[in-house]
Write a structure and sequence with these properties.
Length: 144
């Protein structure tokens, strides 16, 4: 008599657990409570990292406590993204300025339109960096 074919389960990597620490066994336990919405958010984050929920919570708590990770608000995250984008724009501006210097040194002339375009890009980039910097400074919490 033939056996029915076994259901094919999705092959998924096993959930990672936190490894042992050289400081000895972990004998202290902390109870953490979440409502349903919070638990769903935290569980999703642990799933993204393919970690057990308790392992993820423990690892993140240690990362924040040792300042390897600094928690930021969603507003601060947007500001940081703006700063990252501005860094890329500043690299492009620097490249444009190098091209201006090369052209002036090699040929000795540039059109007013070319110079004004580069200067406009420089001014806009500096304005964006100033705004983002002020926003970060407003949100910065003093360390105690």
């Amino acid at each position: 008599m033939d056996k029915p074919p076994a259901k094919k389960e999705a092959s998924r990597a096993p959930v990672r657990r936190r490894g042992r620490e050289p400081g000895g066994p972990r004998s202290h336990r902390v109870k953490v409570s979440f409502n349903d919405a919070e638990l769903a958010i935290v569980q999703e984050a642990a799933d993204r990292e393919n970690q057990a929920l308790a392992a993820w919570v423990g690892e993140m708590a240690l990362a924040v406590a040792t300042e390897r990770v600094v928690p930021v608000s969603s507003d601060a995250k947007k500001v940081l993204q703006e700063l990252i984008q501005t860094r890329g724009q500043l690299r492009r501006v620097g490249n444009n300025l190098n091209q201006v210097a090369y052209t002036l040194n090699a040929e000795g002339e540039m059109t007013d339109v070319q110079v004004k375009a580069v200067l406009a890009l420089v001014n806009e980039t500096v304005r964006r960096v100033d705004e983002a910097t002020l926003q970060v400074m407003r949100e910065r919490r003093p360390r105690s």
